[in-house]
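haha ok so turns out i had the wrong file open the whole time. this is the CORRECT one, sorry everyone. sequence first:
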Amino acid sequence: MPDKVKKAVEVGTDAMIALGISNAKRAKGDRVAVFVMRSGASFLSPRLFDEISFPSIKRMVEGYHDAGLTARAYSTAA
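then structure:
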């Protein structure tokens, strides 16, 4: 099961990067928001965050940066 979850997150991350770049270009903007919801310790264990969530967040920030955009991360996590 964890491998299926990781694969789903990878596919979703690719889609989010493409969508963020497309929307920023369409809006003639230079920033994109990365909402890091449900990634806090109250929702995910540190192990799952390190294994599943953080790599996705990192890929998004790097993907936006590579496209010349500034990524701003927002979190509801405490």
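Strands lie at 31-35, 70-74.
again sry for the mixup
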